[in-house]
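cron nightly-structures :: item 1 of 1
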Amino acid sequence: MLGGIERVLPRGVNFDISKQHLARDQHSEAHALTVDRSSAHRRAGNPASSGTHRMSSTDADTQGSQHGVARTARSRTEEQRQQDREKIQKYRALEDQVRKQIADNNYGPDTFQLTSKLLRLNPEYYTIWNARRRCLISGSLSRPSAGSSPSKESPSTSATDTPTASSAASLPSSSTETPQPPSPRTVGKSGTTPDQAKDADLIRAELSFTVPLLMEFPKCYWIWNYRLWILDRATERLDMSKARRIWEEELGLVSKMLTKDRRNFHAWGYRRHVVAQLESPVLNGQSLVEPEFEYTTRKIHDDLSNFSAWHNRSQLIARLLDERKADDDTRKAFLDKELDLVRDALNVGPEDQSLWYYHQFLVLNLADRAGSRQVAPNLTVDQRKSYIDREIADIKDLLEDYDDIKWIYEALIEYAVALNHLTGQAADSEYQTDLATWLTKLQELDPKRNGRWSDLQKELGLS
């Protein structure tokens, strides 16, 4: 009955648990451990508290070898261990309360309050987020009216509320529920129904509830996921102007999050989703491509190493030029400006992989005449060749001061090969000599990938 609910432990606790204690609820534990927890989601937060992973005292006292930090042992007193055991007991008592409520199909206010307590301790416990959704759907939120737009997803089918293997097993199937007919709506002087006013207050309260969690755990996927689900309820239940205002406030929040951590890829992905919603017809949206492109410019000037900002920029360019109705000369001028921008950055920090990513995007865009997202689609082959030759020459100049950076050699090889494909001609003897030299240097600088470089040598006929 409880097999679909994983047992997880809170953050910030060092674990010294006896085998007998670990064996509690063995059946549900075994079932939960069969569920794929998704390693990407585990990496988003503290591995110690994600999924069903349980730590021993040894795990807790020796953790720390992440992001180049050496793993060091930490001694703990018996008093500290006892304090941790007491924290675990309190946490599990709270967890058992929630599990019992769910098992009894009780999604009332008491269960809702219990989920608040548990999620404050462990926001990565995704089954409890699903239980919280069920509490809202079952009673707190009004039922959507019969005339709801079909473009607005129902709570049980929202894209951000896809049931997982464990949550689907623990929550009753929506197909067995009989929806109650909506009560007649009375409209006040402001044009807002009582149901809408109640829903608006609840939606804002839920968004407020998650803000402190998001500030403390900015890379916890499940908090971002839940906020999107709540925002979708705003689109579904509130009139357009009120829903749009909430989404606009969310864009402001994610901007603040990206000020705090400029390279949080969760926040960047979330921002793209929020912008897409604000541009949608459902919210009477208009294109935000210009301000978003300018936003990437500011973020890049703040931090040249902001890979996410460079990536976002690359995704906006084709649409930006289309919406500007840019002619060939304008597109060429735009390309020149972007190449100047990233070239100047590379002269400052050639060891930065994020800069090479964007430079590669521009150069390979030139080399791919058939691509659907061309920056300057009407350039001739000779013009494209001239561009790539110039970029290769500039990169060669970098070798005078930076001959030990592998990204330089990778770029030179990739662009030389792309140039050959563009022109349909084999590399001349000078390029062949250069390619052999660059590959030899790569084998020296990046020996872990010697197999790759050897294969490339054979592919290019250099071995």
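cron nightly-structures :: done
The chain has a mean pLDDT of 79.
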